[in-house]
Amino acid sequence: MIGGSEHLKEEVYKHLDDAIKVKVDKFIGFPNEAVDRIVPIQHNEDPLFVSVEDFKEWVIDESQMKNKSIHLKGVHYAPDLKPYIERKLFSVNTGHTTVAYTGKSLGYSTIGEAIKDEQVLKQVKRVLRETRSLILNKWNQEFDESELVAYHEKIVNRFQNPYISDDIARVGRTPIRKLSYNERFIRPIRELKERGLSYQALMETVGKIYHFDEPKDSESVKLQAMLKEEPLEQVIKETIGLKDEAIIKEIEASYQAAEK
């Protein structure tokens, strides 16, 4: 959840009187944070036993802290959280679902199976190359290219970890949400286009999302029903929230190419 600590503050303040709020404002901070760690679907008898990957990243917005001298071990403190949130969204989230939708189109049922396919691996690397160009264009003061290349290589290695392989049905669920205006595919496509940068691989993946047919996922069922009942162009407009006719036409072409 983006802005989780701010939301917590709003909920806490609903239960405080004005005098207490003044004291809380003085001594207690609610810094937002970005946490990155893959937690796959669990198959443990003990519900308190949770399997996670070795990789972990915890970034805290230092500007929202009351006592900036307190630093926890293993935590990165940043003056602005937005670059790190976008890096994670456009890398881990975009990359993971790219593996899911590409893998699904090839008949795979798990991320672990899919990422072994050279076609899937190539596609996720192409997508990350495009999102990397966007991140560098926007946040070149925070990240350099060699750092981002290493970060993306580490992400691909995480997807290849057989011990945290997840079901494609779970990773790819809620396709309508994932196609929306500010989500992991349409947002980087919009921003890459604004900057005159390539988004071909991202567009190819978007076409596959519209073919994601998972009977146990209500959004997938709804999307497939929309595609049967409405013109493709109308479905695209409803799901991505864009009026850019050129992008809509590109998505139509990508959808049709994914049928073949």
From TrEMBL:
Its EC number is 1.1.1.17. It is an enzyme of class 1 (oxidoreductase). InterPro entries: 6-PGluconate_DH-like_C_sf, 6PGD_dom2, Mannitol_DH, Mannitol_DH_C, Mannitol_DH_N, NAD(P)-bd_dom_sf. Residues 80-257 form the Mannitol dehydrogenase C-terminal domain. GO terms for biological process: mannitol catabolic process. It catalyses: D-mannitol 1-phosphate + NAD(+) = beta-D-fructose 6-phosphate + NADH + H(+). It holds the Pfam family Mannitol_dh_C. The keyword Oxidoreductase applies. Residues 1-73 form the Mannitol dehydrogenase N-terminal domain. Coiled coil: none annotated. NCBIfam families: PRK02318.1-3. This is Mannitol-1-phosphate 5-dehydrogenase. It comes from Lactobacillus gigeriorum DSM 23908 = CRBIP 24.85.
